[in-house]
Task: structure prediction
Amino acid sequence: MDILRQLLLIPLISGPLYMIAGIILLKFPPKGINMLYGYRTKNSMKSQERWDFAQKFSAKEMIKSGSLLLFSSLLGFLINMDYLTATGVGLILMLVTAAYFIWRTEASINKKFGKD
Result:
């Protein structure tokens, strides 16, 4: 397998991992605010109500982000790219999907509960 195909395996593997983590978080959300498990930000930990909302919302966003990573990786196997392009696209996609799901969750928390 050439190096390009190996680079495309990273989002191919991380996509389903995002999806599995999202499903686990959705099915088994943490009951109380904690520092070990769940979507943990200052904003989500301000109250139990915010915490519960953030767990459900972020889990759904993780599943969507994982689907996007998986799809883009599979698409990358069909498109002929050079090494530098594949590296850039892979890294950018992983960073953007992670930042996007965090941004969406924080924006939704602020929309529902207001900025404190």
